[in-house]
Amino acid sequence: MNLLYLHAHDLGRWIEPYGYEVATPNLSALASRSGTNLFLDAHSAAPTCSPSRAALLTGMTPHESGMMGLMHRGFRLKDPNRHLAFWLQQNGFKTALAGIQHLQPGAELSGYDFRFNPVKSTTQQGQIDWPAWDGAVADEAARFLEARKEKDGTFFLDCGFWLPHRPFPPGEADGSAPPPGVADTPETRRDMAEFLAAVRHLDDCCGRVLSALDRAGLTEDTLILFTTDHGPAFPGYKCRLTDGGTGVAMMIRPPGQGSRAARRIDSLVSQLDVFPTICDYLGVELPPWTLRGRSLRGLMEGATGGAESAVFSEVTYHAGYEPMRAVRTADHVLIRLFEEDLRPVPANVDDSAAKEAWIRDGGLDRLREPVQLFDRKRDPLGQVDLAEDG
User: What is the pTM of this model?
Assistant: First the structure.
């Protein structure tokens, strides 16, 4: 059995299978394909890039793995061998990385037999052409898969796309309203239109890789995982511990599914559950270090009681220091802030028209309570703090 891990950057749940008005035909096809499990209430262990990815790939929380901030700002895994790629490699899998991984600098990268990192081109404005780069990543991944049909042995392909991380490809406003809670202005509508264009390009890239898996005749021998690191880069989403920050798209299609119907699972789960789930389906022993999640296999196969009663998420660093922790149940999320200064950290909100509107609306001056409690069902944006009521 093989593993194909497709991951996006700053996507949240902003694809068609989750009810959003953006054309993502390839990911929609995966969601409705026989055997696919679409998780409606999956959450990352951290709403910031490297810590989230580290949690999924190590099975440990960021403060346990050491990845408490961004890799390119100097944070590292305490033990780079406590990693899914290394563990599968030790168990006989050929491991390959196409695109981003955001956990180890290239010179320190371990656990992968092959790495495909296309040359970055630039646009006329002097920015990296991320759509072109993602397209090249998809093509490299497709070539790897097509070559595998002539080879024996199991593989793990880690395929990471940049989009829809900022900066978005330039575009024109198309009437798309910004996410709930974000100021609705002509500038934020254009910003949102560019975000959705990036999502559509991501979908095209995922489609190329999935088509190559089909052409190689490997789909029924491969566990397919699609997910992202955290919510989109808008104020109130990325770097926040409310649902807009931690909520992620996640689909898992186990191998050998045949004609089993696709399922939509509304149980609360964490990306910390991914590592043990992969080991369960691929017949690989659990690693010697402690995994914080549990296998989702029973939940995906219809057993009762397979959901988490509560899941944990954290932030320590992103661009700035902003330590906070959260425990989430099916109904509520409890958040604890640990800094004396209870104002938001501006560096932890990505630069954008949405950020400018947020600042104009007084976002930087809004004091938060050190302990916050929100009703997830009635108040998914986390705007009414129930902790104030005692």
Answer: 0.97
